């Protein structure tokens, strides 16, 4: 698969900002980075060299340090400018649908009135630094940012980016137990994931309000409906952050780097199992709430933790005239295990409050031993956490497994590119968060896609055997 001059993603991200004048873009960049409490850090580029804005707290500089190192490799060709980088995992900017239509119209008008190519100068304007306002001595308050940490964001930052007559705006899925067939129908064929691109459209999927931690209860969310030039590593559908390649793609921590101790053997020599390790980092499970039961990673591990009970799965209907219908079929555990052995477990039960933490640990680790009852809560929690950590697996040890499962965390998954570089076959739960590479990979060619409802996971596992 050859990619040549593929700049569509960059064009789409920058298009709305044509509706703003250069002065407005500079002003909004200043507003974003002038308030450190909003977790947006500034990087200044002067005379080809990048440096971190002085108001960035020391404990938030690690990611920006890496960005500076990346920029300095090509900074000599950049003009003087200030850039605002999102320091959170969660994306930040979501302009409501109706307002975005006006913005896009203004942007199209501005592009139409742009100078002809022959009239453009081949150099940057002089003394650009004076156009960038200096940071204030004391932090300012960006009042147009809304904090919805550990609360639902669906209505205000999900459905609001969809057309008024879309299912996301007109329907509420109160039944959280059963599979919403109408929500998945546009992008699936029976139990199989069929359209990777269409699945990225949340507007026909109102059930996503309860199926991803970003919408049910993000651990940290500080967002705005104002069009702000903020760079993020990934973004959810409808958001207007500007995507840049994550620094995780450039550091050793998540690099594909087989070693003699952890080699990457040929596919046929690998352990023939489906493997996943991770943490409950997708969203926050608060107090006595049960929102964690709907989060992707928790549903995924639950679905893969096969018991001795017969599983009832939604599978394609055998009658041809009902080929786009599903029917529930009892499947024996032995039949599921025979397809592909599964090794999926949490190495950390995190981002939760009691009693939700204990409920998650009991569900995924099994009930606590009776002797734990005599321990104080702090010691009991530590012992249970240590129990989960026994599942920790180094990234380089993944390569011995034939099939590698991947799913979103609080934002994107930092391991997926390493999985693609390996000789293993990745299975990817359709990510809510889009990254820079999304238009450059092809489902069923580079990886096996899974619907976020996971209804086709057993079927996809079997199909993976043939790839």
TrEMBL record:
Domain of life where this protein originates: Eukaryota
Key words of the record: Transferase
Residue ranges of every copy of the Glycosyl transferase CAP10 domain listed in the record: 384-452
Pfam families recorded: Glyco_transf_90
Region called Disordered, residue ranges: 363-394
GO MF term (any one): transferase activity
Similarity remark: Belongs to the glycosyltransferase 90 family.
Protein name: Putative capsular associated protein
Species assigned in the record: Diplodia seriata
